[in-house]
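Re: beginner question about structure tokens

> Can someone show what the tokenized structure looks like for a real chain? I only ever see the sequence side.

Sure, here's an example I had lying around. Input first:
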Amino acid sequence: MVYDPKVVEDLLNGAAVDEWREEDAVARAENRRRASYQAKLTRLLKKTSNDKHMAERREKVTTQLAGWEEFDRDGILR
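And the corresponding structure tokens:
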């Protein structure tokens, strides 16, 4: 693509290019912040899901143990 030299000269002499660079820097920073938040949210959801899965699994295992009700009622040191 060929641009009119006068237009290119006006862009370079004006502050348009500097403004574009500043806008791009702000947009990159915002995108990084948004991606960081999304990654944090994903990790939290994964951890919560994993914790819930482990609690369900633990409950399932403990209900299968013979005599668990008596142990739970009496406690470990009684």
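Each token stands for a local structural state, so reading them left to right follows the chain. The helical segments are 5-13, 16-64, 68-74.
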